[in-house]
Design goal:
With about 400 residues, the chain is α/β, with parallel strands linked by helices. The protein contains twelve helices and 22 strands. The radius of gyration is 21 Å and the shape is globular.
Length: about 400
């Protein structure tokens, strides 16, 4: 266990963003199904370790797949092992065993797959997935849709994914379809959802992973509040939905200049905004911190699924903001922040959640007084070098082991 002590400082300089975790998950699975090809660069995070480790376990016919704390790994691979006819048991750590997988349990009952679970992990999967019509909600997690899209093309016959509710976080599904296309597999979007032709083959290729917009959000927040930061290695034609954070920061009032593969974000006169985060729920911690330093009311909505992440992120963000003296009201699907720029250093909980720790490390830069955040090691889930990069830009973060 560790904690990080944040002292006031201004970030200034240039940073190359790490490769996209979301794109890498998808490319690694496509590469596995193609039988070869390199996927690079890949950040040595816990989530990447989970996907690489599980794919190696499948390749070696091992019967236990440890997804560590990666919800993407778990939900992407359940349909895949079923399509391959493997008998395996999924296990995990942290909150992952309690995170929802019920959509698959219900969906596969009539599709030749036996799922044995008491509602979470461990989950034993056996049998062979059959093609057909898959009716599934679109408002629980787009990861279910991605998992099906990756697996269904290797079945012998055609399949349909019929969405029974509107799809949330659609850009993540768009990313899946885009990466699959790079490997020669085609998915058709329809008025009911998606049509997936069977008996397709993933083609071998080398894949270059683009920069991560999700991680860029924390530095954009720092830039908007009171820094001058250049972020390199970003693709403005990316299907990553989280690139929308650029428009969000502009709406707050940040000064942003965009070049070919980089952007500069500088301090602006920030004002409260209203934002629907249905398609960018992971951006909420960074958005909420930015709102705390803006003048006026910010309304964040459409993010109810954040309650089922590594932590209940809505509760976690609101609790920490209150400790920092911010006027925040928690709602069912988000929060209302009445910002005035008066934010105070405090002893905060990291909730063993990488995005909570990184977001509040930005808040600590500009808060009055010192800030301490627990569970600093949780950044290893997605961005192990976060504090190294943070300090390179002029930050003052001291990570201390507590036991």
């Amino acid at each position: 266990m560790s904690k990080v002590i944040i002292k006031n400082s201004i970030l200034n300089g240039s940073l190359v963003m790490p490769p996209s975790k979301s794109a890498a998950h998808r490319a690694l699975i496509c590469s596995f199904l193609s039988g070869g090809g390199n996927v690079s660069p890949i950040i040595s995070s816990k989530d990447m370790e989970a996907t690489v480790g599980c794919l190696n376990s499948i390749k070696n016919s091992e019967q236990v797949l440890n997804c560590i704390e990666s919800g993407s790994t778990l939900r992407f691979l359940i349909p895949l092992v079923a399509a391959l006819g493997k008998s395996v048991t999924f296990v995990g750590e942290g909150r992952l065993p309690q995170r929802p997988i019920g959509e698959y349990l219900d969906l596969f009952k009539t599709k030749g797959v036996v799922c044995e679970s008491e509602g979470g992990l461990p989950l034993k999967v056996s049998g062979k997935l059959q093609s057909g019509v898959f009716e599934i909600r679109g408002d629980v997690s787009s990861q279910y849709i991605t998992g099906l899209l990756l697996a269904l093309p290797i079945l012998d016959d055609d399949s349909k994914i019929c969405l029974t509710t509107p799809l949330q976080s659609k850009p993540y599904v768009d990313m899946t379809i885009s990466v699959m296309k790079e490997y020669g597999v085609i998915v058709d979007e329809t008025d009911y959802g998606y049509f997936v032709k069977g008996n397709q083959r993933y083609k071998q290729r080398d894949y270059i992973v683009e920069g991560d917009w999700s991680q860029a959000a924390f530095f954009l927040s720092a830039g908007a509040i009171g820094s001058n930061i250049t972020l390199n290695g970003l693709d403005f034609n990316s299907t990553q939905g989280d690139k929308a954070v650029v428009d969000v920061m502009k709406k707050f009032g940040a000064q942003i200049d965009i070049n070919e593969n980089s952007l500069i974000c500088r301090k602006g006169e920030l004002k409260g905004i209203e934002i629907d985060c249905t398609d960018i729920p992971d951006m909420v911690p960074a958005i909420a911190v930015t709102a705390s330093f803006a003048n006026g009311k910010t309304v964040i909505k459409g993010a109810e699924r954040l309650r089922l992440k590594e932590s209940d992120r809505i509760e976690a963000v609101c609790s920490n903001l209150k400790k920092m003296g911010v006027d925040v009201i928690e709602t069912k699907d988000g929060m209302v922040i009445n910002g005035n720029g008066k934010v105070f250093g405090a002893d905060l909980c990291g909730y063993n959640d990488h995005r909570i720790v990184m977001a509040f490390s930005v808040a600590g830069l500009f808060a009055a007084g010192e800030t301490t955040i627990s569970d600093a090691e949780s950044i290893n889930k997605s961005y192990p070098s976060f504090f190294e990069d943070y300090n390179k830009l002029g930050g003052n973060a001291d990570v201390i082991c507590t036991r």
